[in-house]
Structure formats: structure tokens, C-alpha cells
Amino acid sequence: MSIPNIDYFKDPLKSLSFTKSTNEQQEELIAFEGGIGEHNTGKLDRIPKYSIWYSSNYKDNIDSLFTKIEKELINKKHVANNKIITTILYIYTSHPNRLENPVDSLNDLINLIQPVKVSQYFIMPPIHGEMPKEFEFGDFLIGILNSNELAYKCKKAGSDFYEINKNKFTNRLSVKRKIFDVNIINWHQFLFIHGKYINNHSLIDRSLIYFEHLSHSLFEDFWNDFNEQQNLQIALGLPDMPSKVFRERLGSQSVTIYSDIRFNNKVYGFVVPENIGSLTISIYPDASKILKIIKEELKKFYDFENFNESEIHQTIKSFAKFIAKGYRYIDEQRYDEGFLHFIIALDLVFGDANTITKAISERVSVLLSIYNKENYNENKTMISKLYAARSKYVHAGKSIPYDYIKEIKTVCRIIILILLNYQKQAKIKNYNDFKDWKKKLDYLAIGFEIGRSVEDSFAIEIGAKEPENNSPAGVKV
Question: Which sign does the torsion angle of CA 136, 141, 145, 146 carry?
């Protein structure tokens, strides 16, 4: 697919210009707002605003063009947002053939998209005192900055960023993400093809804006994943490490390194640093030890390493997401909202289109009673009480008693362990969803009402009982 070569797109593309006309009414597209940047020498320089202009007659055309470019970028697995699209059009305005072949020139630019490798570091200010031990979760490694690794990657990318700043990188804590692939426009190839018609320094300045916006988007993903990949461990009872207290810390620096940009039998790279702003961070004690134990025990006892795309795993992932949100609200002393998210998590797993609260209470109570060897009716009364408190909060604004918050946290801790047990059994039995599981819970609820017991093999099958010798220490309630 490509952008259609029609007048509806040709005319607005031809009208794009770096300079504002005095002869007609025009609209402005801002690629970069301007600001203050740090020169290699350490001197602060003012960076101008970068804009392009187009005829006001083409406002609707430009809106449609943005939509079309967005679809093209998404189709090519490139980051797509208004800043990126505006910057691409800003650089497109340098294309030497754009007036003769406007649409083809834009398609040529978009067709230069290729996969590259990306490394991301979030580097915090110098720490005085004892450095925390290195630890990892998901795609992230937190520990003392490996300055030799950073130096090597910057040099390989053809950047002097590390050499100029190497004295700043001692005794620094960093959050590093695993290397991943991303698709970018190969500006080196564009410059090679059209460089004799374009001011090289001008194009390099414009490509800097592209990489700045792209890196900003990738770091938004960095922090979103940083939060999301904590969800399971938070649901298992570990404290949250909020991304906000990292990303806003005064004196921190984010560094994005693009490598393996290939053209003409050569390999290029690009380094984008950004300085950050605010206060302090807090990592819970023994994070390295605890996270290592959890990772090992999830694998050993639950045969779990990462979420896959199965319905069962995606449901557990969503459950953990809402539990983690609940803990984050509670950490902010927003107790009612935290409680509500724990209830939403239970609804998500145990409810369906036609389920009433009574059925959810019964299903949860069945699992709690088997797992903890407790009285079914007492558990059902407790769960019904929690749901009644939810209704009073939603419909009458009545705050949740703190004891109820403690109870719902314990319930959800048990349920996440049961779900982990069940996903392991689902692999063995080749189950694909929760439909039959819920039917079995309903069957057991009827049995509990008439005093019927549950066989161990059946309890293991639904995840409510762990097999013998399956007693993880790190993730137990």
C-alpha cells in the first residue's frame, strides 16, 4: 500500500513551505516548539522553532493526509503520532523532487523505513552512600550503570556523547531495557540519494527533530512497560516502584541509542540524550533478592516465565493489572478507588455477560474454601459483604471500611496464586479458556451447599490445591 497519487493529496503537498507567505492565508504545522539545548562544549544554546506552512484552502486535505500517513506508518510498524507525522512532512519539504512528484516523493521517504536495534538507558544522578544491588524484572535491569557498555554502544553508533560526558557517568544508578527492534526512516540513505541537492547540515538538523520525537515516544513505552511488567509481582504482594518517581528526578538523563542502521554496506547509528527534571526515588529493601526468588519460583512451581497470547494468560494479565492499580491507589491513600479496582479484577475473572454478584461470590468462595480449607458459607458471607460495600460506595458515596480493604487484598493474593496454578494445569490438560473452569466452580458451589466434599485431583485441576511438594516461599500469601 502507499499514499494515492491523486490531486487531493498532490496539491496540499505542493503547498508546503518552510517560509510563511504574505500573499495568502496559511496554516502552520509545528515540528518543534523550540527551546534550550546543551552544546557539546556544555554551553546552552537556544534552539529555534521549526515550522512548515500550507495554504488554508487545504485544511481538510491535510487532515486526510495525516490520517493516511498514520495508516502507512502503522502498516510498516513505525511509531505513528502527530509529532512524528509533522516531522516527516517537515523533512519531506526538503525533498528535491517534491514539486514535480509530490506524492511519489513522500512515498519514497516512507519506503525508506527499515528495522534497527534500540537500546534505552535511564540514568539517575550520582548516589551518595551504599548503592542498591542489581536486580531485574521483565525487560528491565536496575543497577549501577555499566559505563563501559554505554561507551561501546555510543562509539559503535558513531557518537561522541559518552566521550564528552564520561566524567558524569561514575557512581550512577540506571534503569536499562533489553535491546529491541524498532522501525525507522533511514535518513542516511535519504541523504546519500538526495544529498547533492540538499544542505547536509540542514537535513541533519531536521533528522535530529525526528529522532527526538521518536525517542520521546519510545520512552513513553519504556515507562508504560516498566509499570505494566510490575503488575504480577505487585499482585503477589510486592511494593510498587512507580515510574513517576524515577522519570521526574532532577538531574536524570534518558539515552536512546539506535544501532544497526544499514545502507550501502555500511552500518550507522544515532544517540539521543535528554535531560530530566525533580526529586527522589525509593526502591524497596532487598529488591534484588526478592525479585530473583519470585522469578525462580514462578518458573519452578507454576511453569511461568512470561505472558503469552492465550486467553487464559491475557485474563491473568488483566487481573494483575487491576490489582496493581488497586495497590497504587492505596499507596496514594485513595483507598476507595483502590478497593474498587480489586473488585473490578474479581469481576473480570469470575463474571461474564449474564453473571450476577451472587454467582461471582459463590465462585470466589469455592476457591478460597478449598485453598485455605475454610468454611464455604463464611467465605460467601465475606465476599457478599465486600460486594455490598462496593455498591454502597458506587451508589451512595459511602467510603470503604479499612478492614474490608485488608480482606479484599488477601482474597486477591490467593486468587492470583490459584490462577497461576490453573494456567499450569491448563497447559497440561490443553485447556484454552475459563468457560469450563467457571462451570466446574458453579458445580462445586452446589455441592458445598449440600455438604459434598471435593476430591484432591479435582481441586488440583481447577488450581485451588497445589500438588504435593509445590510450596513456593517467595510468592505465598
Answer: positive
The three cell numbers of residue 230 are: 510490575
- Within 10 angstroms of residue 123's Cβ, the number of other Cβ atoms is 22
Give the model's pLDDT for residue 38: 58
Q: How confident is the model at residue 193 (pLDDT cuts 50, 70, 90)?
A: confident
User: Can you list the pairs that 20-26 forms with residues at least 24 positions away whose Cβ atoms lie under 8 Å?
Assistant: 20/53, 21/53, 24/55, 24/56, 25/55, 25/56, 26/53, 26/54, 26/55, 26/56
- Rounded to whole angstroms, how far apart are CA atoms 52 and 90? 6
CA distance linking residue 153 with residue 155, whole number of Å:
5
User: Within 13 Å and on the Cβ side, how many CA atoms surround 409?
Assistant: 23
Number of helical H runs and strand E runs in the chain: 18, 10
Q: How far is CA 219 from CA 131, 132, 222, 241, 251, in A?
A: 25, 23, 5, 17, 17
Alpha-carbon distance of 415 to 463, in angstroms, equals 9
Rounded to two decimals, what is the model's pTM?
Answer: 0.72
